Amino acid sequence: MNTAISILIFILILGLVVFVHEFGHFIMARRAGIFVEEFAMGMGPKLLVFRGKKKSKNPLEGHEDVTLYTLRALPLGGFCKMRGMDESVPDDPESFNNKSLFSRISVIVGGSVMNFVLALIVFAVMAYLVGYTLPVVHNIVQGTPAEQGGLMPGDRITHFNGTRVGVWENFRFMLDMSGGREVELRVNRDGQRVNLAVTPVLNEDGNYMIGFIAERHWGSRSGVLRGDPEFMRASVFGSIRNAVQSIDFHIRTPFRLLARFIAREPMPDDVGVVSVVGMGAQVVEIYQDTIEDGIAQMVLTMILLTGFISVALGTMNLLPIPALDGARLLFLIVEGIRRKPVSQEREGMVHFVGFVVLIILLIVVASRDIINLL
Q1: Whole-angstrom Cα distance, residue 85 to residue 95?
Q2: Does 129-235+243-274 carry CATH code 2.30.42.10?
Q3: pTM for this model (two decimals)
Q4: Domain coordinates of the chain in residue numbers?
């Protein structure tokens, strides 16, 4: 029963994230005066069809003159079909390819922008409710590398081996990637920059640490009493700033891991490419772990997970991979540089070949995830 509920929750999360992405394309297309032929949730055969009220100003023979809102059989994915995006419709003012370069770019990036907006709302609200940790030294544990390296209470860690650190997750990630080698920390100490060298060590849980307690800002649902002398309230501004920095961290992390893979540097054991199947399996596991702590904890965790998936979808779609938004954006950039568009036949062929390769890769990864589950 729990497995069925967690799978349903995953489908709802994925559906919400996809809906927000496609809605971003939809609203930008409407603003640009592009006629949207169909706004679909899911893939495969149509289950439900609703005819919109907004009619095309330039009806075409053989095409719908209103926007269709459809629900399809497979609850994975969705699309926003715009007139003239994959075909030539000359002299049609409502066609995608007849709009200005700026309008087309805004439509393409609109989906990912909306994903980042959703993640910003989720992360900010969660930070305000649950709280957040900053890479700021609150207390030093005696006899640890932090004490030996010269860290002091109040130090704000700003850089880790030359890389800027904004949020605690970023610091924790860099620490895990250190492999126990000596690292250089730059801290802000009473407005002064101080450079320190610290060598992380493994703790009892097998994680690298340097031995300090970080500054924690408690949220309204944290259960910490206001009279507690250690209490620091999560502010609205601080929550928003933490959310922005978290999005920046989650956008950068896949590229940093890819750079480590290319450089043949050690990689964490739990890092890898996962399919929708693998992602669903992780959600099931997270659900089963958090439901033991109560429904409220499970709901908060699933909301936070929605933000992570939204950032991942927004970032992935901006990659210059054929058939994704990033490839279309790249063609538009090339058009802007050379002052004339790439022929639709060539662009269509690139997207078609890329789509076939992408589907094959997705099948391979999904097969691996299914085998791992079995």
Answers
A1: 7
A2: yes
A3: 0.86
A4: 129-235+243-274
